[in-house]
Design a protein that fits this description.
Elements: H1 5-19, H2 23-88
């Protein structure tokens, strides 16, 4: 039971009547450019994921360093407060 030539011809005739012969090439061009943009977007998204992973790991390292610095500052502040308390008696 496949699709016969006459069925394809009728579908093509209906498409031509609906869209007009001049719009069909423009429509196909738009579909092709849409597919190309979609493929480009997928490639860029893959690159963006790799870049974001690198940025995230760099931020994680910076966060660890700043957390260590903050902890050192807090301990230094608490030691100076303890020294003041001892001095004040």
């Amino acid at each position: 039971m496949g699709i016969s030539f006459w069925q394809i011809a009728i579908v093509v005739l209906i498409v031509v009547l609906l869209f007009g012969a001049g719009k069909i090439p423009r429509l196909m061009k738009d579909v092709g450019s849409g597919i190309n943009q979609f493929k480009r977007g997928l490639k860029e998204d893959g690159k963006a994921d790799e870049d974001s992973d690198e940025v995230a790991s760099a931020k994680l390292e910076q966060g660890k360093e700043s957390a260590a610095a903050t902890t050192a500052e807090r301990s230094a502040e608490s030691e100076s407060k303890d020294d003041k308390k001892v001095a004040n008696g």
